[in-house]
Amino acid sequence: MQLNPSAPRQAPDDADNTGGWRTPSVESLTELVHSFYAAVRADALLGPVFEEALRDRWEPHLARMVDFWSTVALGSKSFRGNVFGKHMALQGVTPAHFAVWVRLWGEQTTRLFAPEVAHDLQVTAHGIARNLFLGYFGTHPVFGDGAGDHPSEAGH
Question: What is the pTM of this model?
Answer without folding.
Answer: 0.80
